[in-house]
## 1
Amino acid sequence: MAFGQGGLVGVPPGTTVVQLPDGRVIQFIDSIDDRLYGSIQYANGDVNMLDPFSVSMSQQIPGGTRQMNNVDNNLIRSGSQGLSQAWAMSVYSIQLEFTRAMRVTGSATEPAFDSYSDPVSFVTAFDLNRKVFFEFKYNNKQYLQGQIQDLPGAAGLHFQGTQTAIENVHNGPPDVRTGRALVIPVIMTEQKAFSLQMTPQVALAIAQTAADGATALSFCDIRAKLVGLIDRNVN
């Protein structure tokens, strides 16, 4: 193993690197500990496969019609196109987070970002976990599969009090240490497709009682996160 400065093919001059005995190069200055994330929208009765990484930021949310914002998605390009040129990522955790349960506003047929929303209840979370099967694929190879509970979110608001009617369900405790850690990280490189295909095995039953006592909530958003070390090109 050798330390040095850039000058190798694909490494900008001045970049601090470590060259492994097999010739691979690890860049330090370009690496950040961060996440890539995307969202999907399920509705009562849905049976279609949705992939939170199938589109990039500012496009329509998979399963719905609203335009996503930075809260929903931070992908520069869709997962089918892979990471940007000169990017790489060592994925050491994949997490699924229940974002919200919601309903449409007025005569609308699809919810908007500012539509009435509540935290996901236990009944809604139970139905989604029981029925939705996921597969994570990279470069057309399957790496992980299972149910929502197999990829804990490790995030979420936490409520403690005496209002027993309030439910705020997370996919695992809101603790950074509870995320599913992969024993062997998935090493993703530029322009190789990745996807998280989430497929209900039977029709979903989303009809959550709203905290305001009005119309039930028949939609649910889920956010998926790839957590790891991201190497970005240095300009």
## 2
Amino acid sequence: MADACFTARATTREHVAASIKKLTLPTTDNGQYDHDAATTFIAGIHRILRETYNPGDPGNGMFKLCAAANEIASIKATSVATAKSVLDDAKAVAAAASTSSSIVPPAIDSRADAQDEADRINLINQAVIGAKEGAAEAITAKVGSDVTDAVLKTADGSDLRSIDSSKKSLQPSSKAPIARTPATSSPNSSMSSNSHLTSAKKSPPTWSSFAPKQAG
């Protein structure tokens, strides 16, 4: 299973990115996206994430990335399990469940079992991170960096933030049409794009493709 950890991130990222890029996001005769088109696009993303295999929750796939903070949305690029961390966690859980008259043994107490569990956790973590990266890349390719930079770049726009700072919470906030105009792509970033969304009056977009992830 340890070997699978090295491929889970790249494989899931490639699958999610390719699938979302195949979705259509048509424009009107005036070169605008309307609310119905955005809603259909978002529903397609939700479907793809639900159908993307999640080794930790096969029934829901990666759909929980679309929801508020939860066990997979909170997984970060730095989330790594080791045999020691698994043993420590097992001891802590057992200690919390124990009483003065009833000692609960750790569910995992051997290094071999702890390493197996660490490999399982890391496989899940890497797959989830890959799904986040693939969705961010594909959504930016569709709607443009001007929409997604507010979350995916630092405040001064000079660098990309970690994928950990966003979640795929996609909801159109207005039925007003949104214009499509060219955007500059970045050859140094996997978040590059060919178009972006701005409102017809050149004000900031009313349709947000990303929302700040809740802390914790």
## 3
Amino acid sequence: MQTSDFLSLISTVMTAVAGLITAIAGIVPIFNSLQRNRANQPVTAVKDLLLKIVKVNREPIDGKVWQRLRNTTLFFFVICFLFVIVIIGATVSAALIFFSAGNASIDILHVVAAFFAFLIFVMNFVVYFYLSYLLFSLYTRTGKVSADAEAFLFRSVTMLVDAEYETLFFLCREVLETIGGEVAEYDASTGKLVANINIFLKMYSGIIKIKLEKIDEKSSTVMVKLDPHFFQGTVFALASSSWIVNQFVRQLENK
């Protein structure tokens, strides 16, 4: 192998490794989506317990936060979609150059390097295409006005539930464990529940706090709020926190 060919191979491998790192980092949201699907499964461990959610109130976000989320989501969607176009163009161009007459190399190292480079192109395409889909979905769900996103983006949830207090407290704790929470504090006498939530490599994580207040023998209120571990105060932390709290509400409804 000529020195120039060896240097070219080294350059190709370094580029491939850099692309592989990017692809692996981007694969995280895909696995996170699989984890979400698991969290959506209904809970059936406790049966024959009476529970009825009478009312659900979500504390809305203000208009400025909603607008910032909408603009940020659109910006990153455009960036990811541009990456998709660049990856497609680069892959087609590289394939045409490699397989054009007189350019194709039969050297095993070049063939292996070309294969891995193509594989990494495909991985990056999958990652950025999936991210584009997620961001576009998030953008459309924000709606045209902030009121359109009230069930999707909020700061906390307060529910009025018809159930015996002790039963409700037990169910809340069970639901926390079902959605991936590790209960750190609980006190039935004060109605306090605190749990750590970590969903796939802590990409979606935080401390979920639940407060139960007994109204009478058959009714109680449940307040649910999540404080994210990372990116506090950002629009993405708000979106992920809202999603986790919604999972709790849905699982409780399945009771």
## 4
Amino acid sequence: MSRTPVVLVSLFLMSCIIPTDPNIPDPANTPPVVEEHSETPMNRFVDIDLAAPSGPDGGAMSQERFVATVRDPDIEQALEGLVYINYDPNRPRPITFFDIPTTMSATRRVEFFVDRTIQEIVSGGCPILELHVSRSFGPNFQPDDPDDIGKGRWFLRIQPADGSEATCQRGM
């Protein structure tokens, strides 16, 4: 009997079989969470007096500043932010949008500005400001993954420039 078949069988049995397509799933994405920041606490009234001279030069400010903390354990993932006033899921129309770059930290400080001259602010009353955060938004400003969204909310109490009183209820 020849040794060739025995050698070939031995070599085959000692070889390591490597699959050509290892089927390793991508890790699950964790949705971001929008948390309040001490500079502009959420879920309560934020008073905006359109007549108040509060700009650095003593004139009226043209924008209102908001700050939030976004927590996302996917630290290498860039995020996007959309800001709404009186959000309507059937007709989403953000008033501003911005990128939230990676910081290599699970928490990111997010600062955005709302123009005080837009109609929803100028008309006074008590609009609701919402920040929506996701890794990406698609058509109609909906997140590409419906489960990948974090939201923060502020209740605005607008004091009109004519000095009339805003009629929001206190206590939120």
